[in-house]
């Protein structure tokens, strides 16, 4: 029986908890540090290229610049396709989005496309041949209306908070002679007027959410701009971002050579590359260089494939991104993205099968809605409707929390006995963010690269193992627990940990190395 952790996790442990070991540290990390000290020691592995299909990566980051893949067949800046792969000057990868940052969600694109055909129609007035498409249109439209209503409500709520908060803060700043006053300062005000009493009540309550009121105001303003941004992009019915910016048809699979080689994207602040930069750091931030943090893997080069906008990715871009990574030497591909509507799923499935045929392992995030994927389809995936798999080299990863026990599974993580393969660390993961910064982010988006890092290490030190064997090692060598876990953050919904993924296990690098060595 593994011990439960009684003492709270320290800040130092939190920053590297996914490297720790359940047996030694009672924290459900992957045993990374233990593997390096006890098994790898001074052994040399082979170089492994990991394709990161994401929002772009800050390739100049202090902790990533030395681990970015450079295309050996391409001469930088000569504006020629030296290696003849169809992509001009693809030095560090390719950007299939060009200068696109914001995008619609897939169900909004579906509504736009089918609106003229079905608006105002009933099922009875639609031909039998169109019934399925009409049902999709109705479902997408209902989802869109619900989400827009919720987003508008959030904008109204946050704007309302600011309209009360700012004048109250201005008044107290003037009265107290400082902006970073505390609850104690507010409580110490003698003989407040009726207006001041209301202001003190409001500000005291808001200080529960942040250390200072200016910091909280910044948080709320961030919320307003986030939700307003969603209304301007995710749900925008008037703009076709792809046609305007990229001049490419998302419904025409025959074009493959579009976009550019700017793999960190068009934003000079690289804000849009935050997600991909964090994912890359988890996998391969340079180890033991005295800056930042250590990635899971050494001997790894990150190939950057930008294909995930702020909004939903296009199936065409994802299919082309997978093929690009496979054709240019990636042995592991990380796919930390997903959506619940897909207009050309067969293109992505063909690319997943292509990766399997070429012995490439795809490590995929399960998604963050806290739902059972055996009852809901998410894209990309490798499942047929019957539960059989299209590919034996596609590994879907759910997210673990650092608390061992009932809260072991992240409250946001999707799960599923057939559709999720394994679990890896995904709550409060410290890693690289653009312009030489570091942050905690969380999601199955962070669990997948943790596992992709382990996969890359096995491919580096046991190069004779196939992608299929590496997937099997990751699933079979993991740790399990008999503790029932809470699912979707709902205390009334619990299940044995062993029953919420195909393997019933959490990835453990130490055990994976031992098992791989015996194969």
Topology-level CATH name of the largest domain:
Rossmann fold
- Write down how many β-strands occur, each being a DSSP E stretch of 2 or more residues: 11
How many distinct folded domains? 2
- Text of the CATH class of the largest domain: Alpha Beta
Any guess at the CATH architecture of the largest domain?
3-Layer(aba) Sandwich
Strand order of the largest sheet: 2-3-1-4-5-6-7
What is the CA-atom radius of gyration, in angstroms?
A: 25 Å
- Low-confidence runs of at least 5 consecutive residues: none
The largest β sheet comes out as: 7 strands, parallel
Share of β-strand residues: 5-15%
Helix percent reads 25-40%
Termini separation (Å)? 27 Å
The number of helices is 15
- State the shape: globular
CATH homologous superfamily grouping of the largest domain: Peptidase S8/S53 domain
Question: What's the arrangement of secondary structure elements?
Answer:
Layout: H1 11-15, H2 22-25, H3 32-40, E1 48-54, E2 93-95, H4 106-118, H5 131-176, H6 183-187, H7 194-206, H8 213-232, H9 241-246, H10 274-284, E3 300-306, H11 315-327, E4 332-335, H12 345-357, E5 361-365, E6 394-400, E7 422-425, E8 429-433, E9 437-441, H13 444-461, H14 467-476, E10 484-487, E11 490-496, H15 509-518
Parallel strand pairs: 1-3, 1-4, 2-3, 4-5, 5-6, 6-7
Antiparallel strand pairs: 8-9, 10-11
């Amino acid at each position: 029986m593994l011990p439960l952790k009684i003492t709270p996790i320290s800040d130092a442990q939190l920053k590297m908890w996914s490297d720790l070991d359940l047996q030694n540290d009672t924290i459900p990390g992957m045993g990374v540090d233990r593997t390096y000290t006890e098994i790898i020691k001074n052994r040399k592995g082979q170089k492994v290229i990991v394709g990161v299909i994401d929002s772009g990566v800050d390739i100049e980051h202090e902790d990533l610049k030395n681990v970015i893949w450079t295309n050996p067949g391409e001469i930088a800046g000569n504006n020629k396709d030296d290696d003849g792969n169809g992509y001009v000057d693809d030095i560090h990868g390719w950007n299939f989005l060009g200068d696109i940052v914001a995008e619609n969600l897939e169900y909004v694109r579906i509504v736009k496309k089918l609106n003229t055909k079905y608006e105002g129609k009933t099922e009875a007035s639609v031909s039998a041949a169109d019934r399925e498409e009409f049902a999709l249109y109705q479902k997408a439209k209902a989802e869109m209306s619900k989400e827009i209503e919720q987003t508008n409500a959030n904008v109204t709520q946050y704007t309302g908070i600011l309209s009360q908060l700012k004048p109250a803060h201005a008044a107290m700043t003037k009265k107290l002679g400082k902006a970073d006053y505390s609850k104690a300062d507010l409580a110490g005000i003698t003989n407040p007027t009726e207006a001041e009493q209301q202001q003190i009540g409001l500000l005291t309550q808001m200080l529960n959410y942040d250390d200072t009121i200016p910091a909280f105001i910044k948080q709320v303003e961030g919320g307003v701009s986030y939700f307003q941004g969603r209304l301007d992009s995710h749900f925008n019915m008037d703009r076709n971002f792809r046609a305007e910016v990229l001049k490419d048809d998302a419904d025409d699979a025959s074009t493959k050579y579009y976009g550019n080689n700017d793999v960190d994207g068009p934003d000079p602040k690289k804000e849009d590359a935050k997600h991909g930069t964090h994912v890359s750091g988890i996998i391969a931030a340079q180890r033991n260089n005295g800056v930042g943090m250590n990635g899971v893997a050494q001997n790894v080069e990150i190939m950057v494939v930008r294909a995930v906008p702020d909004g939903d990715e296009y199936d065409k871009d994802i299919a082309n991104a997978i093929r690009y990574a496979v054709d240019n030497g990636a042995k592991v591909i990380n796919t930390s993205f997903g959506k619940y509507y897909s207009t050309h799923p067969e293109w992505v499935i063909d690319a997943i099968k292509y990766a399997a045929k070429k012995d490439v392992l795809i490590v995929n995030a399960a998604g963050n809605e806290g739902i059972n994927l055996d009852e809901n389809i998410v894209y990309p995936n490798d499942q047929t409707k019957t539960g059989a798999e299209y590919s034996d080299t596609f590994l879907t990863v759910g997210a673990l929390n650092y608390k061992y026990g009932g809260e072991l599974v992240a409250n946001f993580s999707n799960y599923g006995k057939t559709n999720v393969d394994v679990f890896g660390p995904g709550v409060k993961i410290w890693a690289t963010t653009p312009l030489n910064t570091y942050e905690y982010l969380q999601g199955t988006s962070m669990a997948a690269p943790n596992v992709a890092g382990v996969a890359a290490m096995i491919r580096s030190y046991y190069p004779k193992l196939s992608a299929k064997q590496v997937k099997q090692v990751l699933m079979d060598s993991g740790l399990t627990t008999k503790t029932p876990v809470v699912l979707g953050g709902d205390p009334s919904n619990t299940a044995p940990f062993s029953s919420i993924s195909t393997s019933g296990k959490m990835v453990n690098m130490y055990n994976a190395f031992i098992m791989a060595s015996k194969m």
